[in-house]
Amino acid sequence: MRLDPNDHAWMRRAETRRVMAALNPAGQDLSRYVGGCVRNAVSGHPVQDVDIATRLTPDEVMRLSADAGLKPVPTGIEHGTVTVVSGGMPHEVTTLRKDVATDGRRAVVAFSQDWAEDAARRDFRLNAIYATPEGAVFDPFDGAADARAGRIVFIGDASARIAEDYLRILRFYRFNAWYGAGAPDPEGHRACVAGRAGLASLSAERVWAELKRLLAAPAPVPALEAMQEGHILDEVLPGALDFRVLFSIIINDREKVRDADALLRIVALAGAEGERVSALSSALKVSRAERARMIAACRTPRLVPGRAPDERARALYKRGGQAVADQLRLAEARGEGEDHALEAELTEALSYERPEFPLTGRDLIAAGFAPGPDLGDRLDAARKAWIDSGFTLGRQTLLDQVVIKASGGERDT
């Protein structure tokens, strides 16, 4: 088998060819493309990142890259990985490796010169395909056939591969979500179910990163159904899980050609219930920004499509466009509200720009009011009047109203 560079723009890219020329001095077969770029080229998926496997040591990669005028960055040099930047484009270059010891979370590796040895330590057959710069393919496990057929199959004994790193359980379903055709490989699924208790040994950060990538797949339902049947997510997510709302969100995304939204999908999986989402976000150690969005999507009272214009305007101002859009999509998944109004309200929410309240505390002080709690109360009352007006009252009108309301007593001087 051969990949013709004429058919694959990423192989002809000048930045990438400069890296391969530097790492294959005098035309030697020292460095090959590997992993996702080859897998996606074989299966017809877009190629995003370019990974390279090499017989060179990390120090040799650093030296040869620098000599060629490229920028080598030791991003994971203890594991054999150097990122070589060419024309602003990163290429991850990793020395061939073999496992010396594994504990289910990380591996101790030794560098190797053997392509087959490096391939044997990888997770799935479709990830162990190599290609030279000219396109000659080395495929020791027939991974190309898997890639074209949408099969995700562990290399060798599935249980042994999982015991080396339990994250491979989540990767198995993630790769099925993105590249699989139909239900996951039965042997791999059985091994994942049998080994699922090992997921508890993984860091929350690794689990969350993998779940986000899985839930970002356009059509992950078959993979998620297998995970539901095997109680895989019970090992890493606290509380009851609502697959019904999650599947409804995914189906709506597909039917209405919306981008997959991993954060909204994890909220749906937690039933869009505040306490459960809070517990889940704590368990997974999500970022502050992610947590804030997830909690806002669960705020009560719930919003549904079909509300009056003034109610929508208030909700947008108080909650923000993203939170309103999230709640509308969750309502759609639950079958709540008026479906005919949904798309217009989603567009309104996602294009919303929050108006700025025109009155400030300085304005009131300049008008003779003293700083203090009363000033804040007057400002809050003015803000409420502004919201009730549909955000139409101007600064001077609001200031006049504050003065009039205060005229029953003496103004502070």
From TrEMBL:
Belongs to the tRNA nucleotidyltransferase/poly(A) polymerase family. It comes from the Bacteria. Keywords: Magnesium, Metal-binding, Nucleotide-binding, Nucleotidyltransferase, RNA-binding, Transferase, tRNA processing. This is CCA tRNA nucleotidyltransferase. Residues 33-152 form the Poly A polymerase head domain. It holds the Pfam family PolyA_pol_RNAbd. PANTHER family: CCA TRNA NUCLEOTIDYLTRANSFERASE 1, MITOCHONDRIAL. GO terms for biological process: tRNA processing. Its cofactor is Mg(2+).
